[in-house]
Specification:
Elements: E1 10-20, E2 27-28, E3 49-51, H1 53-69, E4 75-76, H2 88-95, E5 99-100, H3 116-121, E6 131-133, E7 136-139, E8 151-164, E9 174-194, H4 199-214, E10 234-238, H5 245-251, H6 260-286
Helix pairs in contact: 1-4, 4-6
């Protein structure tokens, strides 16, 4: 019988995207050089950096919310009810679309677990979340990427977008210039850590990653910006938590196939562990929250 004690607190999600433009920007590790033809010695072609976790967290939470809502249960809205939102009518429509006011599912936040989303993400005062979402460090140099630390291969560019004139006399004179920080050909792992392990948390993560992968081209479930231009279409999968660190690295080694032992662990995860954790999630939801 699969138990939560057999699963490590650290889990990894494989993230692959042709183009990622995150709204809270990308932190790079050096100054940006000028544009030009590709040259392997060009400093811009060696820029690494960090993708902040905020957009990633919102993307994951939205997927988790949908998983619960599809089971005819409301979830905590991410915004406090007394926040005096500038668009109060939008907040009210959210409450009619599968949400309840944040914290409405608990009488005492120090004692009650509330809905599974409130329980996992926390919400009020000193109520920290029970899942830590780390940033993703990326590098264009594949050999320097450590996938066991939640890192990825990715290629940074600062892109320019121009709104130009449409009349013949001005000959496409730029009217406005916008710069975008983008990472292309991203492939790596996102490191998540459970501060407290519950089987329903793992079940929710499993179902949410499947949902986001299935709905990756939906406007609402793409990651970051540039959604009308193919940005944020993410192929994602939960890497088998039964894998060792060596096996996790092998997932990203394009020159090696999975070992027989990895195949056995995949069968074990799919036949025993995954169904047990998803069942725990469904039981938690059926209890009321």
């Amino acid at each position: 019988m699969a138990t939560i004690d057999e699963i490590d607190r650290d889990v990894y999600v494989r993230i692959q995207a042709d183009l990622l433009v995150v709204g809270d920007s990308i932190m790079t590790n050096r100054h940006h050089s000028s544009n030009g033809n590709y040259n392997e010695d060009e400093p811009q072609n060696k820029i690494g950096g960090i993708i902040p976790p905020f957009s990633l967290s919102g993307w994951l939470r939205h997927g988790m919310e949908k998983v619960v809502q599809k089971r005819d249960t409301t979830v905590c809205h991410p915004g406090e009810a007394n926040a005096n939102f500038r668009k109060g009518d939008v907040y009210d429509r959210d409450l009619n679309a599968g949400y309840h006011e944040k914290g409405a599912c608990v009488e005492d936040a120090n004692e009650d677990d509330g809905c599974v989303v409130f329980d996992l993400f926390g919400g009020f005062n000193n109520q920290c979340g029970k899942i830590m979402r780390r940033p993703i460090q990326f590098s264009p140099v594949r050999d320097s990427v450590d996938y066991t630390r939640g890192q990825a291969e990715g290629h940074y560019r600062r892109l320019n977008r121009n709104v130009v004139s449409r009349n013949r006399e001005d000959n496409r004179e730029p009217l406005r210039n916008t710069e975008l920080d983008a990472v292309g050909n991203l492939d790596g792992s996102w490191h998540l850590s459970f501060r407290e392990q519950k089987p329903e948390f793992v079940g929710l993560l499993i179902e949410a990653i499947d949902f986001l992968d299935t709905h990756k081209t939906d406007f609402m479930h793409q990651l970051g910006g540039a959604r009308n231009f193919g940005g944020g279409i993410v192929d994602c999968e939960l890497i088998n938590p039964l894998y060792s660190e060596t096996e996790l690295r092998r997932v990203f080694d394009r020159g090696k196939d999975p070992t027989n032992k990895m195949g056995e662990k995949d069968d074990e995860w799919g036949e025993e562990y995954r169904p047990a954790f998803v069942e725990a999630l469904e039981e938690r939801i059926e209890e009321g929250w």
